[in-house]
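Task 17 of the worksheet. Students: predict the tertiary structure of the chain below and write it out as structure tokens. Keep your answer in the requested format; marks are given for formatting as well as content.
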Amino acid sequence: MDSDLERAYNLVMDAVRAEDIFGELIDPKGTSEPGVILQSVYDKLHQAVNPDLYKFSPDDKELATEASLRLDKFFERAKERVTEGIYGLQRQRPSLKTPTHLAFKTVKREYYIGEPIAEGTISTVYDGECALRDEFAGRVAIKIVDKTADNELALREARILKLLHAGNGPQRKHLPVLLDRFQTSDSQVGLIFRYIEQSQDMYAIRENPLYRNGVDRKHMVWMLNRTLSAIGYAHSLGIVHGNIEPSHLMVRGEDHNVFLIDWSWAAVSPVKTSDQFKIYTEHFSAPEVKQKKLPHPASDIYSIGKCMIYVVGGNVETNEMPDSVEPKLQRYLKYLVTDSMVQRPHNAWDEWRFLDKLVRELWGDKHFIPFSTKC
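Model answer:
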């Protein structure tokens, strides 16, 4: 990723309010008005995230487009606050102070926590929101471990995400954004993530009446493309996810993005550190996981293959798939889930490139196909 784009992208995507991006708008000399300073800061950032600068790099252009849209929303909010004379003030949203939205504070800011929205193996995820009134996209997901004995797994996820986002790769667009962390009064670790809007995990997709028999194989292919890209990036940093299954793949159809979540079980440089597999998920974990062998990138590739067989309507026990899935594509997915780790693919980037060739061979040039999760 371009270095200027990387800095601007991180600033914009990590922000929860206008002040996080544009700063205090104070001129030490006292000669410029806040509105003038705001415009100047915006212009510099807008130049860095201008998609037209990255037309020869599709990944950078996609990231720039995402950041540019978000930056413009923050800019409009900042202008309103400057005009109203409330820029820099932290007003709260009293409308959220209801019995189902309890307030709590961290070192960074205040949040409201709502109803549970997901239950995992070791934690519960709650709906939440930043308490700042100027927040235009303040919805967050608050993940709290159920038992203090699992605190270390939550802290591991925080460390892993820090490593992943520290890397210089556009694939970060496929990763969750960790905004904050805290401890409950009972000493349970909590992590606060930016809420992934308009997305569903693969289990939820298959529960949709539209996709009870599986998604079209052309939709599955772009999901596979995004997932291979995300895990290829992680593997390049020496990180093995270790527990890829349908609930950990969040799909956002409107822009064909896939988010690989829940890095609590990840292993870092296992050959050097002897880091181990930490969980076995039936049907989706590779055989070597149950055998307690050393974590390996091929194990993640196996799990990805199983997820794609599942989402396309196949049987994850037998690897049988609907007749609508072309034989070449079926053979490829079965190759990804070869029982023998030695005979299975090891390099996600190689598979990403092969998939691109296979898709062009099957269907010609790529075209964006809208994917809806609405009945």
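Marker's comment: The longest strand covers residues 110-119. Residues 94-194 form a domain with the Phosphorylase Kinase; domain 1 fold (CATH 3.30.200.20).
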